[in-house]
Every structure is written in structure tokens, then in C-alpha cells.
Amino acid sequence: MHIPIDFAWLEATMLAGVRITAFVMIAPPFSYGAIPRRIKAMLAMALALAVSGVVTPGYVNLDTAGFLGALTLQVLTGAVLGFLVFVCFSAVQAAGSLIDVFGGFQLAQGFDPQAMINGAQFTRLFHLTALALLFASGGYQVVLGGLARSFDAVPVDGVFDLASPAEMLVDGVVQMFLGAVQIAGPLLLVLFLADAGLGLITRVAPALNAFAMGFPIKILLTLVLAGFTFVALPGIVNALTSDALRMMQGVGR
Question: Is residue 2 one of the residues assigned to a domain?
């Protein structure tokens, strides 16, 4: 019994699966620790089979050294693409961390082993909300679409200029800090003015001990204003998804 095997198709699909696996392990929302690794591996292989029709045409079997080099390149490409998406959505987590620091919640920080983050209430709340919104809004489909288009920009047997990903990484980190300040900026300004006002009251009337009253006041302000920020998160996640797609498309240029 003879079973024909298309080794070019098999080899190209395996290389695509390696890139997708590296991406899924790093990029949100797929990298969340509560998702079993078996599910991530199954998702990566299913996506590799889905894009096999794109990566196979024109692919020529490589020798052992060339295949190992292509394998290493696919791991690097998937990791870079995943890190770009991770950096983009870290802006929401960083905004929550700023709110924790300025709102006085940082003393209650704890380590979340599933999300692999160390932060207080708003850090974890914003992180989980961003992941939930990615699934609920279909943003994960946009991220997967950008990953699929990366095979047109950087084929499984091709190379890319390292200067472009490096530039994207630097730009992504800058945009992350800028996005975090933009998300939490209004709330931080109000909390700063509240601290300044309490300091002036304490200076004028020390017997009032205004800073003792300041803790419940700051907590109330943080909860109220964070609620407004929370309402704006769907639009923020949508904008971050577009930024992540733009950065992924810029890797192969």
C-alpha cells in the first residue's frame, strides 16, 4: 500500500506551526495562563493547517541546515510578532498599575500566576477586562488575521530585515507608556490635586489632620473616576487592536 506524502506541504506547514506556536505563547489573549497548553498547541496546529494553502505554493524542500535555520527564524518571527501585541496591550495593565500607585491600592498588591503579573486590584482588573474585551469584541480575530498576513510579508523560507522589528519594538514600548498615561492621566491629575488640597488644608489648620481624612476620600475618588475609565475601555481596546495590527504588518517591510 502506497500512501503519497507531499513533503513540501508537510515541511511548510510545520514551519508555519512553529511561528504560530511561538506567537500564541506570548501574544494576548492566547497567552493567558488559565488556558491549558494542550489547547494552545491544538489552536496553533489548527491555524497552521488553515494557512497551509498560503505557505505551501512556491515552497521548495530545504536541506537539513537550511531547515534548522528556517526553524530558528520562525521561532524568532513568532516571538517578535507576539511581543509586539503584548507590548500594545500592556498599556491597559500599566494604566491600572498607575491608578493603584496614586490611589493608594499598591499596598494590597499580589502575584497572579495565571496572568504572570504582580499588581494590586486595578492592575489585575484592567488586565482581565482587556482580555475579556478581546474575546467579546472579536479583537482576537483581527490579531489572528494580522498573524496570517505575516506569512505574505515574511514567508516561511524567507528572511526579514532586523532593523524593522527593532524599530517597531522601540515604538511599541514608547506607545505603551504614552497609552498608559493617556488612559489613567485624568484620574491621576484629580488624585494629585486632591493630595495638594489636603496638604494645603493641613498647612493652614494642622489640628484638622486632613491627611487622616484623605485616605477614604482618595479611595472614593479612585473608585468613581476609575469607573469612568472602565466604561471607556472598549474603545481603548479597539484602538490598541488596530495599533497591534499596524505594528505586525510593519515587521516585514
Answer: no
